[in-house]
Amino acid sequence: MDLDDILTLAETGQPSPLELARARRVARAAQGRYDQSVADGYEIIVDADLVDPLTTVVDEATRVARAAQLAKLGTITWTTGGGMSGGFGRLTWSDEMAMIFGHAPGTLRLTPERLADLVHPADVGAVRKVVRTAWDRRRPDEVTFRVIQPGGTVRHVHCHIEILTTDGAPSGIVATGADATALELARQERRRLATRSEMLCADLAALDIVTGLPTRSYLTDEVDRARRTTGGALIVVATEPTTRIPDALTDENHDQLTAEVAQHLRTVIGDGVTCGLVGPGLWGVLLAPQKEHAEAPEALAARIVDTFRRHLFSVQHKTVRLNTCAGLVLFESGVVATGFDLLIDGEHAARDARRSGTPITVLNKPMATEDRIDNCRRQVRQAVSANGFALYAQPIVDLRLNEVTRHEILLRVRNDTGDSVAPWGFLDMAERVGEILTVDKWVIDHALELIGRRAQTSHYQVNISGKSLADPGLLTYVTEAIRRHGVRPECLTFEITETTLIENRNEALAFATGIREVGCHLALDDFGTGYGALAHLKYLPVDLVKIDGVFVVDLCRSPADQAVVSKLVELCHTLGIRVAAEYVQDEETLEFLKECGVDFAQGYKTGRPEPITVSPEKAVRTIELELRLPPQHTAMG
User: Fold this and answer.
1) What sections of the sequence does the record tag as coiled-coil (predicted)?
2) In CATH, what number is assigned to the domain containing residue 565?
3) Are strands 403-414 and 622-626 parallel, antiparallel or unpaired?
4) Can you point out the beta strands (E) in 342-456?
5) Distance (Å, rounded) from C-alpha 523 to C-alpha 481?
6) Do 310 and 421 fall into the same domain?
7) Helix or strand or coil: residue 42?
């Protein structure tokens, strides 16, 4: 059979299926020879058009259906003489399309209603809209939608919509489609990865916002990694002004001095050495195992101390000298002591150097576990017994009223020179050695004493570490303190900090329930960072949550933070819980929080912490008492 035979056959009527298959094979072979001849440069002199002879005398719907069959696509054909709303007409689909929808060919009779039932309910409206638009405009279109197969499997189908016409008027629709599940899932994955890349941001909690150096938690992890692998040396440098800094200096002045000290440390040790801020006036330097011709850890520590003692720092047009000493801890790989333990050992060694008047104290190996715990507990208990703390107040703005209606009381620790500094390193140590309850009780007693001396015309909020909730006697201690200092319970809210440290859920629930029965309220601090924070909302009778500052500090520049904050506010308000945000640094952040519906805002924009005076001042509706500062606070407090 040659090309002339094919043309003759096409004129003799309807061929059999066998003849059709043979004709297609021969036509494809002829087309291949024709293309090859053209490519080789031969002149084609046969008077014949290379077209499919099987489609020359059929209607448009059949032509589309046959083209789809050749391409292994499925078709749905709907022909109607009275428009889309003028009768049912005839609705059919090809065997390929039936299988795409999960049905065996010939097993399902189609109607418009039954076809709509096969489409995913969420996509029915979109499909109808595309079909209606194509019909009205008499223009082809395309649509991707989901179908639900009989077993419940969901597949994605992409269809091209074509409008059939009779005498210039639309008379039907042909949808040519294919299973596009793999393509659609790949597209969704590309979109997800693009969104994730846009939302992913730097870990701001890893760097101190004033110095730009790694924070205590980051350096602790680095030390822990070193002791698991290579070993090394840890230098803890303690700095404090030789004379007390005047009270006239502002927090900005303290930040300026802190940043200058950090820059000087980086200059002395070089860029290739890991260092960080580990506490108020405490700096950590992590060294890898000593290499040949490299500076020994003892020599580097001595050079740091000597350079710092000779350097004149400047603050508010005044020069400041720093009394500097260092503790050095040498450790091998695989030691039992954790990164936190080694950091504590370095701090104790630096403190010993200060007391003895020597520049450096060297520990050739980590301290024994019992000695380390005893030293930490002794330090905490001495601070509590000597009242080595101070309470500061920071205003909080009610965003609904746009006025200060609350104050948060921040705990500060007095250092050896009598200055009040941030307590985050001290409280971290107290929690690790099981002495945080002692500090909590000091804060509760002294905070309620101050509240009892002032006009109780509003509300006060006192924070308690989540670790302390495991003590079954805490509720009794709190209720006794309320009675002893004459504080009205309805004026108090107790805020639980460090919710991840809650050791006994039953005791925590008992304390929360008991506090509510007494007449006080309950709040959660650092919300959004603890692994159990959402679970706490289910069973603890919480009235207020404070979104952790890590989501607020870079809010206006981070799409991820914006998404987290807005959804947390929505969640809490749905549960009947009010929301506060800390770390508010600028007006732009404040406006965004208002738009999200946040109830309260706190940070340097709303006011910096100030020492609390006992004498009554202008009454405020709420005072909030808290035990810890966020980890980004500066070394100078």
Assistant:
1) none
2) 3.20.20.450
3) parallel
4) 360-363, 389-398, 403-414, 420-421
5) 19
6) no
7) coil
Look at residue 622 in the predicted model and tell me its pLDDT: 46
Do 495 and 463 form a contact (C-beta atoms < 8 A)? Answer: yes
Residue that is written with structure tokens 């007494």 in the block? 518
Q: Is residue 627 part of a domain?
A: no
Q: Tell me the C-alpha distance between 463 and 501, whole Å.
A: 14
Please check whether residues 439 and 574 belong to one and the same domain. Answer: yes
Task: Give the single-character DSSP code of 555.
Answer: G
CB 142 within 8 A of CB 120: no
Rounded Cα distance between 252 and 229, Å, is 40
Closest by CA to 58, choosing from 160, 164, 142, is 164
- Per-residue pLDDT band for 598 (boundaries 50, 70, 90) equals very high
Looking at the DSSP bridge assignments, the partners of residue 179 are 157
Q: Please give the Cα distance from 316 to 257 (Å, whole number).
A: 9
Closest listed residue to residue 284, CA positions, set 314, 297, 372, 295:
297
CA dihedral 106, 108, 109, 114 (to 10 degrees): -150
Domain count, the chain: 4
| DSSP code, position 96 | H
d(CA 529, CA 17): 69
Choice among 34-38, 72-76, 298-302 with the minimum mean pLDDT: 34-38
Inter-CA distances, 321 with 264, 302, 390, 480, 634, Å: 13, 17, 25, 47, 19
Percentage above 90 pLDDT, the chain: 46
Neighbouring residues of 287: CB distance < 8 A, sequence distance ≥ 6: 232, 233, 234, 235, 273, 297, 300
For residues 215-222, average pLDDT: 91
Give 574's pLDDT tier (boundaries 50, 70, 90).
very high
Q: Are residues 20 and 79 in the same domain?
A: no
pLDDT at 462 over 50: yes
Residue 465 · residue 637 · CB < 8 Å? no
Q: Is the pLDDT reported for residue 386 higher than 80? A: yes
362 and 392 together in one domain: no
What tokens does 268 get? 């002395």
Q: Residue 497: how many CA atoms within 13 Å on its side-chain side?
A: 20
Report the C-alpha gap between 447 and 458 in whole angstroms: 15
Q: Which domain holds residue 119?
A: 60-183
Give residue 177's pLDDT: 92
Q: How far apart are CA 17 and CA 22, in angstroms?
A: 9
Last residue of a domain, one of 367, 401, 417: 367
Contact 78, 91 (CB under 8 A): yes
Lowest mean pLDDT among 96-110, 145-159, 284-298, 565-579: 284-298
Q: Give all strands of the β-sheet with 322-331 in edge-to-edge order.
A: 274-279, 282-287, 232-241, 322-331, 360-363
Mean pLDDT value across residues 487-504? 82
By the 8 A CB rule, do 240 and 415 touch?
yes
CA–CA dist 100, 155 (Å, integer)? 8
